[in-house]
Write a structure and sequence with these properties.
Blueprint lengths: L1 H13 L7 H26 L8 H20 L9
Helix pairs in contact: 2-3
Length: 84
């Protein structure tokens, strides 16, 4: 879902249908990568019997929170929808 969304953001920006702030895009990428890495880490930790670090769920919640915040910045912030 995150990869498809990134592709859509790049297409929308490339065809100038919506102007996306670079800060909002990087915030989205940070949230996406952080959550994916943490989910992958948890599965590897269970498989290899590693302990899951304390605060795992808090960091995962923060990473998940970054995604809708970035979307809000993209769509409401200084983004301009071009009308023809």
């Amino acid at each position: 879902m995150g990869v498809v969304s990134l592709g859509l953001f790049f297409l929308l920006d490339f065809f100038e249908l919506i102007r996306i702030q670079k800060k909002a895009l990087w915030l989205y990428i940070l949230g996406f990568v952080l959550t994916e890495v943490l989910i992958f880490y948890k599965e590897i930790a269970i498989w290899q019997d590693f302990p899951i670090f304390s605060g795992y769920f808090e960091v995962l919640a923060i990473g998940s929170f970054l995604i809708p915040v970035a979307l809000i910045f993209m769509l409401i912030g200084k983004s301009k929808i071009l009308r023809t």
